[in-house]
## 1
Amino acid sequence: MTQEQMLDQYIGEKGTPEREEYEAEVRKALDDYRIGEAIKAERKRQGLTQEQLGERMGVRKAQVSKIENGKSPAYSSILRAFKALGAKTASIDLGEMGKVALW
């Protein structure tokens, strides 16, 4: 069974509300992961620990970990992380994964 056949059988065929919802959730999870990876890479590039970034953001280390691991970060937390890292632009280059525009 191909992945497409499995999705058709267990989630629903393309174009159905169930399949559209599933695919939207997958896209969001991937976006959250990519943003978290960008934040983690920049934090490490700057030689910061999660605790130090958290201090700059005004949050605890656990919140930084949650953001970096793509655990449904709030948009406001993402913005605070980028600002705490000194991001001056509205987009972050994720290399092969493309660019993420935030503002």
## 2
Amino acid sequence: MKHNSKSPKSIRGILGETYLTISLIIFIPVVFLFLIALIMPLRYNLLIENMEYAILLRENAYSSLKKEVWEIVSGQKEFNEGRQYTILQENEKQLASLYNYNNQTSQYLEAAIYGNSTIMVYVDTLDMQMCTNMAVSYQISTYQEIIDVVNLIDEVLQLYINECTSAITELNHILRNITFLALAMVVLLILLIIQYLYRSLGRVNETIRQPIIKLEDMAIQIAGGNLDASLEEAEILELEHLVNNLNIMARQIHTYIEKEVEHQHLLQKAQMRALQEQIKPHFIYNTLDTIVWLAEEQDNDRVIDVTMAFTDYLRLALNQGNDYTTVETEIQHVKSYLAIQSVRYSSKMSYEVDIDPEIYPYPILKLLLQPLVENSIYHGIKKKHTRGTIRISGGFKNPDTIYFMVEDSGIGMTPEQLASLKKRLDNSYSGKDTSVGLLNVNRRLHLYYQCSGIVIESVYGEGTQVSFEIPLNEAAHLSI
């Protein structure tokens, strides 16, 4: 059953939300227009101030510089007595201030700053000429250079003033457009409020009507046999008790079904244990035949080895009637099986066991690995003309999961055979295929661990790889 994280609302609360939404629809555009009305005049005033600043700088500062330099060149004032450096430094500061106010975007201010620096160089040159008593003509020439740069600065400042004038004109157009936009927004707001009120009335009606329809639908589903049907918590306060009571009824039915499903699982597990018994006679007959054959060959040592391995195999398989064993015991069981089979197929197979000892103490459902190894021998190694190898590995997949893998270098499977086997594995979950071996292991993994079962990869002519994972949080509490 899904739970609604929101608390049930009364009809009065729903209407209150509607009124709040209308208020927000009005408030947000009004705030937007207010901010525009506040920002645009500030921008307008800044442009006016910058333009006035440039005009004063153009008309006063550089005019004073011309006069000061001329008095020095004409001999009316000593160079050290002049204010030329002070004027230039002040002009540099003022130009830099204007440049920063314009966010460093005006090319004309950059030119004026560069020109002011150029004048500073010419003034230094004039100082050098006067200190070395160079001819007056050189001093006059330097003075003329200063005048030319001053005139150039005068022109670029005029261009900057023109730029400010154009920006003010553009800003006036923007303000006029904003005024028209504000009028349009007011009209649009009125239309939106009217539309929202109309739709809100429909939503309020739906809020009351829809939960009732859901209640009716849930009752119909339960009556029709859909026992997974559930209902979210009431969306309105007036229906809260009715929804809760219906959900309680649904949970009780669901609990009853879960008990029935668990009962069916127990029956299926009993059937699977009966299927496991079908594996033993076939192997027992073959093993006894092997012992007889070794006895006839008078290979007493191998008779003893196979008999002891067979005894261990039966003891570990029976496991005192328990369904679960430890990983260590399961591996010993597989090694006993391989020891017996390696005698029968000594010319066909070899095997390797690589299990992380850290997982030995963990519980595992018995007889999971032996059927996989048996499948590798009879359907992989045995069908290959050359000698093959079976490798069994296992360890931690992550802190919560252990994995096992059985690989063989046998004949492998064609893509068609692999697809057919995977389809049979899918059917094994529902009990449609009651075969033993891989399908039996797959179904037992699903029933006991509720995991995804075994994974098979195979390449024809190269071999087959079968693996599965067991969640430790499922296995750790199980008794052995």
## 3
Amino acid sequence: MTRKEQKEERRQAILMTALTLFVERGYHDTKITDIAEAVPMSTGLMFHYFASKEELLLELVRMGTMGPGSIGQDVNVPPDVYLTMFLKQVFSFAAEQPWVFYMFVLMAQVRRPGMPEEARKLAESVDAVTPTVKLIKKGQKEGIFHKGNAETMAISFWASVQGIMEFRSINKEMTMPDPEWIVAMLK
């Protein structure tokens, strides 16, 4: 392994450790020394990777912005099929990379008042609801989804996904639900 690869591996270990501690203990109750000790490495060495706890949080939130906010739509796929496939991919990726469950929790936590402002604004910039509203409206127009306020339906859809991901982050033995069950709420 090259020195560059070792450095990246250590950087990832810091990020995953911080993610776990921020979710399990809370951002404000986690100290840099706690993260360094859990990695394990010296606190001084950790500062060579991240200048502050806030910078570490910001990097995690940047990673989190790559998630469900990336939802779009292939115009050739019916909205219900698209949402089902999208959730299958999210759940499958999370099963392979369990940190994803914690990322859902962290992104929700960071949106709350009292969190570092730059991280909070970045987390709030992730918008999975608006593209989902468009999908729901298209599905309603095509008779796939039931009538109702598309924004409320999209929020309910994502609240369900968020709840599942949060529950799974606590209960590692949980069997993930069939994505079709979640999409069925819209039908």
